[in-house]
Amino acid sequence: MKLEMVLNVDEITIFLLLTGLGTMANVSVFVNQICTFAGSRKKSIHLILIHLAFTNLMMLLLKGMQITIEALGLRHFLGDLGCHILVYLRRVARGLSICTSGLLTVVQANIMSPRASWWGSLKLRSPGYVLLSLLFFWILNSVISMNILHSIRNRGTNTLQLSINDQYCYFRKESQKINNIFLMLMVLRDAVFQGAMGGASGYMVLLLHKHHQHVLYLQNSKLLYRTPPELRAAQSALLLMLCFLFFYWTDCFVSLHLSFSWKNDSLTMHFQEFLTLGYAVLSPWILIHRDGHLAKCWHAQ
Description:
This protein is mainly α. It has helices spanning 2-38, 44-72, 79-112, 118-121, 127-144, 176-220, 229-260, 266-290, 292-300, and strands at residues 152-154, 169-171.
C-alpha cells in the first residue's frame, strides 16, 4: 500500500513537472509569435504557431487541472458539468492539435514551393486563408466531439457503470451505433490530416534534397551561401511532424494493447497519459531550439 502511494505521488509530481515545463515553453512561443505577427512580418506561419501554442496550452492546463483535483481528492469539486467541460475541451484540443499540425506542414510546403509551380500558385499562405482554416477546425472538432457530452459523468455520482481508468471522470456506455459514427468521423479526420501532412512533408523533403545539391555545388565553387529562413522553417516543420507522428502512433499502439489486455496494467495506463502530453510539451522546445531569436531570449534569461 505504501509503495502504491509513493508511486502515485511520483506520478503526480512528474505530470505536474511536465505540465509546468510545457506551459512555460508554450507561453514563450505564444508571446513571441504574437509580437512577431504584430510587427512588420505578418506571415501566416506565425498565426499557425500562435494557434498551435494556444492548443498545447489548452491541453496542458486542462490536464494539470484534472491532476490537481485528483491529487487533492476533490472528486465533487466540479461535478458533472465540470467533467463535461473538462473532458470535452480536452478532446477538442486534441483534434485541434492534429488539424493545426497538418495545416502547418501544408502551408510551409506551399511557402517553399517555387511561385511558378502549381503548388506555389495556391494562396494557402495568405493570413485570411489560415484564419478561415482555423475557424473551420474549431467548428469541425467541436461537432466531432459532441457525443462525449452525453457519456461523461463525475466519479462522485452514485453509479456502477464505470468504463474508463480516469480517477475524476468516467464514460458511461451509450448507443454503439452513435459511437461508431463519431469514431468514423474522428478516424476520417485523422487520416485526412495525416495524409496531407505526409504528402506535404514528402514534397518538402524533395525540395530540401534539391537545396542540398545546390549547396554542394556552391561549396565546390567556393561561393558563400547562407541557408534561407524558409528552408530552416521547413526543417522545423518536419521535426514537428515527426514528433507528432511518434506520439500519435505510439499512443494508438498503447491504446490497442490496453483494449486487448485482460489485466488492468496501471503502468501502461500511466505511460499512455504521458504520451497524451508528449507533443504539447516537446513541440514548443523544438521551436525554441530551432528559432534563433527565441533561443537567445532563453539564454539571456
